[in-house]
Design brief:
This protein is an alpha+beta fold. The protein is built from four helices and five strands; from the N terminus they run H-E-E-H-E-H-E-E-H. The chain has a single domain, classed as Cytidine Deaminase, domain 2, CATH 3.40.140.10. It has a five-stranded mixed sheet with strand order 2-1-3-4-5. Bound molecules: tetrahydrodeoxyuridine.
Length: about 140
Amino acid sequence: MTDRELLNQALIAREAAYAPYSGYRVGAALLSVNGTVYTGCNMENASYSATLCAERAAFSAAIGAGERAFRAIAIAGGKGRKADEKVAPCGVCRQVMAEFVDADFAVIWGNDQVLERHSLEELLPFAFDRKNLED
Ligand code: THU
């Protein structure tokens, strides 16, 4: 699966976004090491803090299916109809990713023209993670 193919799946997932308050629609596509893609979209709420980001929705779907190892996540978003912005994941989603991924995990974002690929280490250096809680 290429980065472009994964990002295209995020663009499709974005079409289901529920974002009546911000109008900012996001889709995510998470690739497991087994080659399965799990998608998610953002899901807003009238009680704003109950909003769930697309990335965490994708992780929830994958974890619920029994997956525990991942290669990459692609994210597409923007206001309005077109996913024209480059969406870097929010801090909460970076922390959730850190729970489940290794150093070589790729975070990809972009639109139908361009894409970028980063490591989670670049996005969340000095992470607090499960290693901190080991005996
Ligand atoms: N959002 C995501 O789904 N992922 C991100 O990484 C950034 C923000 C959503 C949450 C909310 O529904 C909307 O974008 C505006 O913050």
